Amino acid sequence: MSTERNTEIDMFRGLGILLVVLGHTTGLPGEVHRYVYSFHMPAFFFLSGYLFQLDRVQRSPGSFINGKFHRLIIPAWCMGAVCGLVFVAKLLLHRITLAAFLGLAWGTAVGFPRADGNFLSTPLWSLFCLFSLETAAACLARFVGKAVVPLLMVTGVAGIAWSARLPFVPFDLDIATSAAFFFAIGHMVRQRDWFDFHERGSLARRVILLCSAAAVWGMLAYRSGDALNMSDSIFGSSPLKLTLDVAAALAGTLMLGHLAVALPDVRLLHWLGTHTLPILGFNYLVNAAVVHALDAAHANYWLLSFVVQAMLLTATAWVIDRMGAMGDLVNGRRRSARPVSMPRV
């Protein structure tokens, strides 16, 4: 794989992180929430599998795992600690007990995926989950080679089927079992060249592919009627709806991929795609602040809230990006790996 960044992949991430912010917006209409949740997190696990370099991982699994620890876990801990400052203040003001504070600190440190068990850092569960998944994939690849892909597929199917029965395991290993399915599909798609993030063919062809994927996704999500929620281990209320949820997640992911390819090079989306971590980490904190401010102004409309949050989170990521070593730490990158600069808008 080339070391040169793929613009379409960055735009895929940029679109995906905006969907995450939209999905977490307080007051979002139920139908909008359901359609966003139908694929926005599976899409990220699909992309991780798509980018998983099996041959490289087999040669040096230890180096791969160490790199992922610095890329995913260190940023999660740093951002969790920053979010925790609000709760330190509450503790000092006796608005929270020490036992409750320590419980939230533990949940933040191990990626507890629900808001009642962390420092308003819930979206970071996906980083812990991805680390667990990629660590497991790397270890398995060392021993079984290419058989790791069907093994992850089987694990994913079992994880989805039994997701509601699995207890929370630190670093979201329980959710990683279901995420393994989308990860394996992503890797399989890359290996068989069923889809790639490059412009091919005419604009008309790209639009037709995009519209076709969107139509299939919309139909499947509508027929399911349930809101897929990986962090709550919800994959349909019946075997049929579970199947429809998984199919809708794959169709929605394909739609997002075709959209990233069909769009012109939007530099802002490209930039957002290289700065997803701080947007993810501070999403809940910014959401709470914006909701409080809009409530005070009697203007808490979900669309306005989403726009304000997206702007504030982008500005936050921009400021963090310019904090030198700390910015590199939060973004999970080596100092030599500088992403694209923020576009002028």
Automatic annotation (TrEMBL):
State the UniProt keywords alphabetically.
Membrane, Transmembrane, Transmembrane helix
Give the transmembrane region(s). 35-52, 72-89, 95-112, 124-144, 164-185, 206-222, 242-263, 275-294, 300-320
Q: Which PANTHER family match?
A: MEMBRANE-BOUND ACYLTRANSFERASE YKRP-RELATED
Among its keywords, does the record have NADP?
Answer: no
Name of the protein described by the UniProt record = Acyltransferase 3 domain-containing protein
Keyword Transmembrane listed? The answer is yes
Q: Where is the Acyltransferase domain?
A: 7-312
**Species annotation:** Caballeronia mineralivorans PML1(12)
**MF term (GO), any:** acyltransferase activity, transferring groups other than amino-acyl groups
